[in-house]
Amino acid sequence: MKVKVLSEPLLEFGKGTHICPRSGIERLGVYDQKDEFRKTELRLGIVGRGDGIDKLDIWLEKCRSGILPKESRLANLFKGFGGITESYGFQTKLLSSTAYTRTLQKSLLNKISHAKIREDRVNEAVDLYYDQIRFLTENRAIDVIICVIPKDLFEQVTKLTEKNSEDNDQLDSYMEHNFRRLLKAKSMHLGVPLQLVLENTIDDDKAARDQQDDATKAWNFCTALYYKGNRTVPWRLVEERYKPRSCYVGIGFYKSRDGETISTSLAQVFDEFGHGVILRGTPVALDKEDKRPFMSEEQAYELLNNALSEYDKALMQMPARVVIHKSSQFRASEIAGFNRAIEEKSIRTKDYVSITETDLRLFGETNYPPKRGTLLTISENEGLLYTRGFVDFYKTYPGMYIPSPLRIIASENDSSIEDLCEEVLGLTKMNWNNTQLDGRTPITIECAKKVGEIMKYVNEYEKPQVSYSFYM
Fold this sequence. Notes:
Layout lengths: L1 E4 L5 E3 L2 E3 L2 H8 L12 E8 L1 H16 L27 E3 L5 E3 L2 H8 L4 H22 L4 E6 L1 H8 L10 H19 L6 E5 L15 H17 L5 E2 L8 E10 L6 E8 L6 E11 L6 E2 L2 H19 L5 E6 L5 H13 L4 E8 L17 E6 L2 E4 L20 E6 L5 H11 L15 H13 L17
């Protein structure tokens, strides 16, 4: 066994490279400014109650003009937000107006609170927002719709009835996601991504503010809007010329809403702008002993074969290498199916990488946890990788809890475990919903997880959207 700290992966922006998304956008501009068809204006649709819309208007104006950094000695962690304008950073502007805004009636919002069963409140709230979202998509040319959720409505769709008062914070959080997931799934066919915002997170009243500072909040909010509105990326990983062109695939599993079946979700990243495809697999079986889901050989073959066909359509050529990230260990049937698909497409190089949790920890001589990028190589096929930990650029560990490493196991691998872990570390920085550089899981696994959360609410006969912007 050996321990090594991997270098922080570089990101490419419009005019150079940097390790940090925020500093890169600020100093070098967004990467896709090279795309002549990139939008320099993002038209925002807005749905919310009157007070919430007023708060959003104030918040958008703050994002346009810029926000000072939080007072801290950690200047790189708490970076000020310079604003979103055509001449700086994102090099675009946000357009909003009353013609693109739909106000929810107070009487209809109050009616939701009268429903005694939480599921009824969720369904009524989703229908209320959906009607206005549909109007905007059918009658206005818009790029992203912002749904502002009142605090009292948020509580109504996250709390159980009094009969089930034993619920806890964790359960509340899960149920909040039910509302978000159902709304995104129901609106998906309308073809415009949604951005959900809780009123109290943009309230200018200091007493209502959460723990995240306004500048950080603006960085994450505007980056998500930019990605969703443009369908291109503000940064990408630096391409290593000596490596073969690779197709990265993430595979996860999700339960149906009734819990009766488990299906596969697949997310694929296949070009420099982060474009990929979202695919929905078929119901899978559970292992009789450990109760974990797995694919048959035919299911694995069909899933990867479809993904590679989409890659070919997009780039008009097959990749030289396929990397599959999976949130559980690979079964023999899955490997056989993947191998068959790869052999039929005449792809020479492959790496199957299992990314899971572990109870093992490393401890250093200081009061800080291990550095992000710390790799303990256990064997030529297995390693423990810290994707969260002390970050030199931030001069601290920017987390609240003791970080744990990811367990990386390679199967049928043509690359070394160190090279595969370097790729995993880089792909943790490709989540355009978060501008902090130390993501925990690679976008392949993160995207497949988000897809599964939403996909369970998408009708099995409905064709789901292929862009990640509809799921994040």
